[in-house]
C-alpha cells in the first residue's frame, strides 16, 4: 500500500507554565508532526489487518476456530461438574520470566475465593543455556525465591538435573498464559498449550500493548484459540473486535491487573532499604532491543548511554539511582558484542557498589515506581505502566533510527502518553531535563499526563477482582 497518510501526532499544548521549557519541547516535537507511514506503521498494519479479515475464507478456516471453541466448551462443562461436586479448581499461572507476571492481583483474589486453588509454575524458555554460574539460571533461582518470600505457592518447572518437567505432571484445570509463544521453544514438552483436552487456557498479556506488532497480537492463532482473552483497554478491545480476523470472539474487557497495586496505600509500598532514605529515586530502565532488525522494536539505547548513566549516578550522590534492565538485556548485549557476560555482570556489580546505586531484578516493580521521582527508559510497556505514578518520565529516543517514522512503531494510546513525556534524543537533552526535574523540581507536563491517564486506563485497582468474579460466575452457572 503506497497511499500517503498524514496525521497530527501532537496536539497543541494548551497551558504554559514555563515558557522557554515548553517552547523548546514543542520545537523538539515538530520533527514527528508529519509522517508517511511505511509497511511497519501502525495505520498500515491495521489496514492490512482489515484486509486480512475481509479476505478471510471462513468456510475453510473457521473449522479450526470452531474446533477450539467446542473443546473449550466441553472442558468448561467438565469444570462446572467439578464445582457442583464441591471440588476446587486448580489454576496454574505459567510464568517464563518474573518480569512477565502480570496477574498478581488475580492470584491474590483467587486466594480469597473458596472456588480456586492458585499456584505459580516458573518456567524459562532459555533453559538450554542453564549452568551453575549462568546469570540466567541465577535470575531463575532469584525469581523462585522472590515468589516464596512473598507467599506465593510456586513450583519449579525444572527438576534437580535442570530438565524440564512436562506440564502433564502438574494438576491443572485452568492455565493462565502471559505470552503466546512458549510452545515455539519446546515442541514436545509445551506442545498444545493453547489447544488441548486437559485444561482451559486464559490469556492475560504480560505487557500493556504499546509497540506496533499488530498481527502478532491481534491476529494470533494462539490467542484466538484460548478459552478467554482478558483485554487491558478499550482501544485494545476495539482492535480485537473491529479489526482482527478472529473478531475478538473470546475477548473480555477487564483492565490491566498489573496496575491494581496502584490502589494500595503508598505506606504499604515496600522497596529496598538502601534507597528508602528520603532522597529522590531515579530509575534507569533500558530495553533489550539493541540494534533490533525489526524497526518498530529497535528501541534500546543501552549501547549508547550505559556508561553515561553510570557516571550520572556517580556524580549525583544525593540522588538514588536504580538500574532496572529488561531481563533479556543480558542476552542481547552478548549477542551484539556490546559486552561479554562477565563485563555485564561487572557493570551490574558497579551499580550495586555505589552508595546511592542499586540493581533490581524484580517482576513486581510498581512499588518501586510509586516511590520514585523519575523514570528514564526506552522500554515499551513501561511507557504505560509508569503513567499512573503521575511522576515525570524521560523517554530515550533512539537517534540511530529514522526520526520521521519513529512514532509509527507505537499504538495510538502510546503516542498520546509519549506526547506528555520528556523526549531525549541525545545527552544534551538528558542533562537538560534531568536538571529541570531533579534539581529544579519542575514538571510542566504533569497535568497533561493526568488527563491522558484518565482517558486510557479502566478498572485500575479492580481488574484482578473483575477477572476472578467473571470466572466464578461462569463456573457456578
In short:
The protein has 477 residues and is α/β, with parallel strands linked by helices.
What's the mean pLDDT score?
Answer: 85
Provide the helix percentage. 25-40%
**Biggest sheet overview:** 7 strands, parallel
Percentage beta strand: 5-15%
If strands are numbered along the chain, what order do they take across the biggest sheet?
Answer: 3-2-1-4-5-6-7
Topology as a string of helices (H) and strands (E): HHHEHEHEEEHHEHEEHEHHEHEHEHEHHH
Which structural class fits the helix and strand makeup?
Answer: alpha/beta
The number of distinct helices, counting runs of at least 4 residues, comes to: 17
Write the layout of secondary structure elements.
Layout: H1 19-29, H2 42-55, H3 58-84, E1 89-95, H4 104-112, E2 116-122, H5 135-149, E3 154-156, E4 174-177, E5 200-204, H6 214-218, H7 221-225, E6 228-231, H8 234-243, E7 251-253, E8 281-285, H9 302-314, E9 320-323, H10 329-335, H11 341-353, E10 357-359, H12 366-370, E11 374-377, H13 382-385, E12 393-396, H14 412-418, E13 422-424, H15 427-439, H16 446-456, H17 463-476
Parallel strand pairs: 1-2, 1-4, 2-3, 4-5, 5-6, 6-7, 8-9, 8-11, 9-10, 11-12, 12-13
Helix pairs in contact: 4-17
Amino acid at each position: 500500500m503506497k497511499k500517503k497518510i498524514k496525521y497530527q501526532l501532537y496536539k497543541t499544548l494548551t497551558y504554559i507554565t514555563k515558557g522557554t521549557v515548553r517552547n523548546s519541547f514543542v520545537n523538539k516535537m515538530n520533527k514527528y508532526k508529519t509522517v508517511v507511514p511505511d509497511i511497519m506503521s501502525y495505520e498500515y498494519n491495521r489496514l492490512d489487518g482489515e484486509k486480512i479479515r475481509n479476505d478471510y475464507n471462513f468456510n475453510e478456516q473457521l473449522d479450526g476456530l470452531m474446533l477450539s471453541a467446542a473443546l473449550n466448551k466441553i472442558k468448561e462443562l467438565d469444570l462446572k461438574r467439578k464445582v457442583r461436586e464441591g471440588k476446587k479448581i486448580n489454576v496454574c499461572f505459567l510464568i517464563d520470566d518474573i518480569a512477565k507476571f502480570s496477574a498478581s492481583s488475580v492470584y491474590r483474589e483467587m486466594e480469597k475465593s473458596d472456588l480456586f486453588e492458585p499456584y505459580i509454575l516458573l518456567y524459562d524458555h532459555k533453559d538450554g543455556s542453564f549452568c551453575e554460574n549462568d546469570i540466567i539460571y541465577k535470575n531463575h533461582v532469584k525469581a523462585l525465591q522472590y515468589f516464596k518470600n512473598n507467599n506465593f505457592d510456586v513450583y519449579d518447572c525444572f527438576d534437580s538435573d535442570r530438565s524440564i518437567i512436562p506440564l502433564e505432571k502438574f494438576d491443572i484445570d485452568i492455565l493462565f498464559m502471559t505470552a503466546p509463544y512458549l510452545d515455539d521453544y519446546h515442541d514436545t514438552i509445551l506442545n498444545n498449550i493453547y489447544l488441548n483436552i486437559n485444561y482451559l487456557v486464559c490469556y492475560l498479556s504480560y505487557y500493556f500493548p504499546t509497540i506496533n506488532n499488530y498481527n502478532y497480537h491481534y491476529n494470533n492463532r494462539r490467542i484466538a484459540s484460548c478459552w478467554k482473552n482478558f483485554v487491558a483497554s478499550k482501544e485494545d478491545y476495539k482492535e480485537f473486535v473491529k479489526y482482527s480476523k478472529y473478531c475478538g470472539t473470546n475477548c473480555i474487557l477487564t483492565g490491566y491487573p498489573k496496575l491494581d497495586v496502584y490502589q494500595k496505600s503508598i505506606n504499604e509500598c515496600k522497596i529496598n532499604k538502601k534507597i528508602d532514605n528520603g532522597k529522590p529515586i531515579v530509575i534507569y530502565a533500558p530495553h533489550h532491543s539493541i540494534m533490533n532488525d525489526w524497526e518498530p522494536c529497535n528501541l534500546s539505547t543501552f549501547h549508547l548511554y550505559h556508561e553515561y548513566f553510570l557516571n550520572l549516578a556517580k556524580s549525583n550522590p544525593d540522588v538514588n539511582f536504580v538500574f532496572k534492565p529488561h531481563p533479556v538485556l543480558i542476552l542481547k548485549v552478548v549477542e551484539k558484542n556490546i559486552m561479554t557476560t562477565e563485563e555485564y555482570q561487572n557493570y551490574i556489580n558497579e551499580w550495586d557498589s555505589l552508595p546511592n546505586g542499586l540493581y533490581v531484578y524484580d517482576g513486581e516493580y510498581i512499588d518501586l515506581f510509586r516511590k520514585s521521582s523519575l523514570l528514564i527508559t526506552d522500554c515499551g510497556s513501561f511507557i504505560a505502566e509508569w503513567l499512573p505514578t503521575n511522576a515525570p518520565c524521560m523517554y530515550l529516543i533512539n537517534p540511530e533510527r529514522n526520526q520521521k517514522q519513529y512514532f509509527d512503531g507505537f499504538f495510538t494510546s502510546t503516542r498520546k502518553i509519549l506526547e506528555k513525556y520528556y523526549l531525549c534524543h541525545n545527552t544534551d537533552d538528558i542533562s537538560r531535563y534531568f536538571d529541570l526535574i531533579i534539581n529544579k523540581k519542575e514538571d510542566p507536563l504533569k497535568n497533561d499526563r493526568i488527563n491522558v491517564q484518565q482517558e486510557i486506563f479502566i478498572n485500575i485497582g479492580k481488574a484482578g477482582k473483575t477477572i476472578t468474579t467473571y470466572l466464578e460466575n461462569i463456573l457456578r452457572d
